[in-house]
Amino acid sequence: ELEHGALWHVPGGYAMRERLGDAKAIVPSAKKVGAFGSRLDVPLGHINAAYVRSHFDAMEVGISDGPRPDEILFCLAMTCGPRVHDRMGGLAAKDIKAWDGLR
Q1: Which CA distances in Å does 78 have to 68, 93, 98?
Q2: Which residue has the higher pLDDT, 1 or 77?
Q3: Residue 57 has what pLDDT?
Q4: pLDDT tens sequence across 6-44
Q5: Which of 43, 39, 31, 32 is nearest to 63 (CA)?
Q6: pTM for this prediction
Q7: Taking Cα atoms as reference points, which of 29, 14, 24 lies closest to residue 76?
Q8: pLDDT band, residue 46 (cuts 50/70/90)
Q9: Fold held by 2-95
Q10: How far apart are CA 36 and CA 20, in angstroms?
């Protein structure tokens, strides 16, 4: 059921923020109901400003022999920088000013 994944978002997000320190941006998330062997796309973004386009990305994750009908797969993905050769423009990480999680 899709809601099982959604239930993890708040406690998982707070636990992640506790480990990272002063993270400002919303934790991007995705939920998916899939069959055995399904792949998940885990969204990625900048840690302090959601509008920093250089960090818009995703990581594909999957387990070849699961999840089985009685299992649920939780994935957490983080990076330590922007996409290689990003050219989208917009707000750059060095120009973050508001420190409100957005800009």
Answers
A1: 26, 16, 23
A2: 77
A3: 96
A4: 888 888 888 888 999 989 998 888 888 888 899 999 999
A5: 39
A6: 0.84
A7: 29
A8: very high
A9: 60s Ribosomal Protein L30; Chain: A; (3.30.1330)
A10: 33
